[in-house]
Design a protein that fits this description.
The protein is mostly beta strands. It has a single domain, classed as monomeric porin ompg (Porin, Beta Barrel). 7% of the residues lie in helices and 51% in strands.
Length: 284
């Protein structure tokens, strides 16, 4: 037992660093997303990981690879190729949830389209949608996937002023599978540019119960904090966040990743990995 306890703690730490949340990797590194698509003929690429765990199960994905493309003006196409693991608690306290062996492998791939249909002005926020579908590429019998296509249907809004940015919104996750349920979710985030290299942000994020086959068997509200570190090349960033529940089921959230962006036109200011404060959108 003396050997098992330190090993279990080490395994949890590694999951938090190397994994990524299977359901909530929407607005890196936060759970709240933004309505600003990638600029036309620009691209984004992420290598990331994190974790989303409850007393029932630690669910994580990593390594994972995300690619975003500004296909047409105000429209972004999106894809994630994730590997992941599940580590059930196997505790009788949480039965019938949380039993079974741990597993690692390819999980469900994600495809989506972000559409910014209302542009930000001095008085009006930017508003957009980010519809996603999850393709059942993971082995559902091992708990690495849902076993059928499922969807995320959110609306997001954003407003920038000076060094500050805020965004928020809500959505509905549509899941038709035994042991899982469809549920609403929403969040609100505020970010400040501290200097040319560092931006810090915090969010409140909440979701309803996701079903007895999920790690999140009950509703939960979390506070997450993190930020973005811009390297000497402003188109390269380090993304980081960590959070914990403040109401509902006990839940931990973590994200760590690298981000790169590039495009065909002039290399103007680099777009933030989550939020943009460009003059053509803010009006400032």
């Amino acid at each position: 037992m003396e050997l098992a306890s330190p090993f279990a703690r080490l395994r949890l730490i590694l999951l938090l660093i190397l994994g990524a949340p299977g359901l909530w990797a929407q607005g890196p590194p936060f759970q709240t997303d933004d309505p600003v698509p990638v600029d036309f003929q620009h691209y984004e690429f992420y290598i990331f990981g994190g974790a989303d765990g409850t007393p029932v199960e630690m669910a994580q994905t990593g390594p994972a690879f995300e690619f975003n493309w500004g296909a047409v003006p105000n429209l972004q196409l999106h894809a994630i190729l994730p590997w992941g693991a599940i580590v059930p608690a196997n505790s009788a306290v949480y039965l019938p949830s949380g039993p079974g062996p741990s597993a690692f492998g390819l999980t469900d791939m994600e495809f989506g389209a972000k559409w910014g249909f209302i542009k930000q002005t001095r008085r009006r926020p930017q508003i957009g949608s980010f519809t996603m579908l999850e393709v059942p590429t993971g082995n559902s019998t091992k708990g690495l996937g849902v076993g059928r296509v499922w969807y995320k249907l959110p609306l997001w809004a954003e407003k920038d002023w000076g060094h500050w940015t805020t965004c928020g919104g809500a959505g509905y996750q549509l899941v038709k599978q035994t042991g899982l349920r469809s549920f609403p979710y929403g969040g609100w985030l505020i970010k400040r540019e501290m200097n040319k290299r560092l931006e810090l942000a915090a969010e409140v994020f909440s979701h309803a119960a996701e079903g007895p086959a999920a790690a999140q068997t009950q509703a939960s509200t979390l506070i997450d904090a993190g930020g973005y570190y811009h390297f000497k090349n402003p188109n390269t960033q380090l993304l980081f966040a960590y959070g914990h529940s403040i109401a509902g089921q006990t839940e931990n959230y973590a994200y760590l990743g690298m981000y790169w962006t590039w495009g065909k036109d002039k290399p103007a200011t680099a777009r933030n990995a989550l939020l943009s404060a460009r003059q053509d959108k803010s009006g400032f």
